[in-house]
Amino acid sequence: MHNIVPAGENALLIYFGDKIDATLPKKIGNFANQLKNTLSDVIIDVIPSYTSLHVSYDLNKISFQAFYNKVEVLLDQQDSSNSIVDIQTTHIPVYYGTEVGLDLERLLAEKNLDLKSFIEIHTLQEYLIYAIGFSPAFSYLGEVDERIQAPRLATPRIKIPAGSVGIAESQTAIYPADSSGGWNIVGRTLLDLSLNNPDNIDKFHVGDKVNFYSITRDEYLKNGGLL
Amino acid sequence: MSFKVIKSSFLSTVQDYGRLNHGEHGMSQSGVMDEHAYCWANHLLNNYFNDAVIEITFGGLVLEAQTDTFIVVTGANLGFKINNEAAQMWHGLQIYKGDVLSWGSHKSGVRAYLAVKGGFDTSILFDSRSVNLREHIGAKLAEGDTLFCKGFDEATYRFIPPKYIPNYNKDIVLRILPTYQFNEFSINQRDLFFNQDYTITNANDRTGCRLSGAPITIKKERMISEGISYGCVEIATDGLPIILLKDAPTIGGYPKIGTVFSLDLAKLAQRQPNTKLRFELIDMYQAQKQRKKFNQFFEISF
Known about the structure:
The structure holds two protein chains of two kinds. By secondary structure, chain A is an alpha+beta fold. Chain A is 25% helix and 31% strand. Chain A has two domains: 3-80, Gyrase A, domain 2, CATH 3.30.1360.40; 89-222, Cyclophilin, CATH 2.40.100. Chain A has helices at 24-38, 64-80, 104-111, 115-124, 217-222; strands spanning 3-8, 11-15, 43-49, 52-57, 89-95, 127-132, 139-142, 157-160, 164-168, 171-174, 179-181, 184-189, 209-215. In chain A, strands 5-12-9-10-7-6-13 form a seven-stranded mixed barrel. Chain A has a four-stranded antiparallel β-sheet with strand order 1-2-4-3, with helices on one face. Chain A has a two-stranded antiparallel sheet with strand order 8-11. The longest helix of chain B has 14 residues, at 284-297. Chain B has four helices and 20 strands. The two termini of chain B are 28 Å apart. The chains are: A alpha+beta, B alpha+beta. Chain A binds chain B through residues 5-11, 13, 19-20, 32, 44-54, 56, 58-60, 63-64, 131-138, 140, 177-178, 194-195, 198, 201-202, 206, and chain B through 20-27, 125-126, 134-137, 177-180, 224-232, 249-251, 259, 261-262, 284-285, 287-288, 291-292, 295-296, 300-302.
């Protein structure tokens, strides 16, 4: 069942569910693509997120009611077809060290884990991309194993270096660029995911997956990693 | 053909109509804060609607023309001068190589727009020339920068009927569409929202505008993050509204009581802290009709 509400004079929001569900992101991502292909002359932008899809359209060409009707028809069609689309998995090398994992030492103590076990738990999962937002290419990944979940910091840091990998509750993420933020930082990747490389905006898609693997301090430094 | 930045200011950036199609990559809409002043500036020069301009916030900027060209300055009255003499706003002006353009003293409004014939020709990043400092896309104008512009081959003198030159000192009413979680606010809470004077606070920038007033409540204080529209009104945990603007993040998790009609956001962009503000409802039909008329007049098309 879907619920469509207006979001502005040229935008609406389609809800695909009312709670976070691992089956929704791919479904929402697929529908976003379908919408862009089918209604390309009137769609301006789409923003998929967790349970919803925000769509803006060209009000010069189509009214709210007419657009709403078209979206409803497409939603009905989608329900009846069971399209299977490939899920891409991106592998991200991370150095889990206390020099770059600003909250690692505290988390290990709080969770009563040694570093090896912590890394095992964080790298074991294939994380689903639930949403992209907050800043360009910032992907919200879930779900983090309960053993290493931690609430956001009470006071966010002013500057978290680009590439930092963080945990907030059941989510984990990579900061693509230097940013303020309140996530628990556990490591850093060497990959440049910032807009310095314009292709990075297409690296992650809602519904795709991300997996982390551990690299040693030596590998990190040898490849240009900063401490 | 260019302008040189002689003295930089608190915040002057290149903006165009915006970066409209990268929400799914987490990029803000960006673009000019006052679409009314911006569209008139380009229109008076017979420019393309999306041509890039300089958005000058609170003045302090000095530029030197390196070429003969035509310009228009609209928006806030920031004491615009050419060669140290007061110059006309909302009107096409011929300028010459060596002329010094300055915005020195704040008189009314917040943001002035400098448009040049053919538009500023800075680099296009992700389909737009709009600078977004929060996203590290582009930078604000700095002393010594060279701002290239396109050439011109025709003088254009279009006029603006004086009734379209706004008075930025008046309190404002923002028309708002009932969107998002509007129906989840109780009737009493909605009454409180529509029947009070809010005040614009100092927390007021390109990302959003925080208001002070009597708090309203909603049962669900946080929700699953969802896509943000330009102008939507979040009710933060403290019960006070934040109007999300051009540089706002693409998704957010506070309940939203509605979305301000875009043409009223142009008025908001020129209001200073402590200005009083009220909300009133507008329906979808009226909002679309008025915006469509605006788009047709300024030849805004996608």
